[in-house]
Structures are given as structure tokens and as C-alpha cells.
């Protein structure tokens, strides 16, 4: 992870996402996923652009199977915006950075 994204695990999800102050954009991804790698730089940029307004968190589904199962993640990348501990918006698949930015802006 980098300065603009936070690695989240099954164990840390409750504190890092559900009890977080402010909205959290969770990226469910895997190392072997090409589209996940494609959007990673855009998510880094969004993490920087929205710093202080939204936290960008990444959950590796291979290492952390509980949380993706709880939120019915069927394909990756899946992005879910959480506010006040509840999912409020969800997208599956790779999108261009401009569309990701607009979606995050409208979701927070």
C-alpha cells in the first residue's frame, strides 16, 4: 500500500471501515486480477485528491475471505463506499479515472 491507501484485513475491517470517521472507499482486489491492477493508480490519485474527505482502503480477497463474503463480492474489482458503517454505493469492474472520481464525489 502507499501513503494514500490503507490495507485492511478481516480483523481490522470493523475498526478501519465500519467505525471510521468519514466515508471509506473499499477496493476489493486480488494480486492476479488485471483490472484491479489497472485501476490501482487511479485509486492512489483519488486517495490523494480526496485526502481528509475519504479514506481509500484495499482488501485483498485471497488473504481476507470473510469481509468479501459478508458483502456478497462476486467479481473484482468491486468498490464499495461506506458511510457511518453502512455501504451506500457499489461498483464492480474497472472504470476510467474520471468516472471513478465522479462516482466517489457523488457517493460521499
From TrEMBL:
PROSITE patterns cross-referenced by the UniProt entry: THIOREDOXIN_1, THIOREDOXIN_2
Transmembrane segments: none
GO cellular component: cytosol
Gene Ontology BP terms: cell redox homeostasis
Active site, renumbered: 33 (nucleophile), 36 (nucleophile)
Positions bearing the site annotation: Contributes to redox potential value: 34-35
Database matches in NCBIfam families: PRK09381.1 (NF006898), thioredoxin (TIGR01068)
Homology family: Belongs to the thioredoxin family.
Protein's name in the database: Thioredoxin
Organism, as annotated: Brytella acorum
Gene coding for it: trxA
Amino acid at each position: 500500500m502507499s501513503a494514500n491507501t490503507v490495507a485492511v484485513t478481516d480483523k481490522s475491517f470493523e475498526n478501519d471501515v465500519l467505525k471510521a470517521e468519514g466515508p471509506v472507499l473499499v477496493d476489493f482486489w486480488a494480486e492476479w486480477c488485471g483490472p484491479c491492477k489497472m485501476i490501482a493508480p487511479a485509486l492512489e490519485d483519488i486517495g490523494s485528491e480526496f485526502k481528509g474527505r475519504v479514506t481509500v482502503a484495499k482488501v485483498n480477497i485471497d488473504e481476507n475471505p470473510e469481509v468479501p463474503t459478508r458483502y456478497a463480492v462476486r467479481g473484482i474489482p468491486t468498490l464499495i463506499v461506506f458511510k457511518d458503517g453502512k455501504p451506500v454505493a457499489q461498483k464492480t469492474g474497472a472504470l476510467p479515472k474520471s468516472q471513478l472520481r465522479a462516482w466517489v464525489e457523488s457517493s460521499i
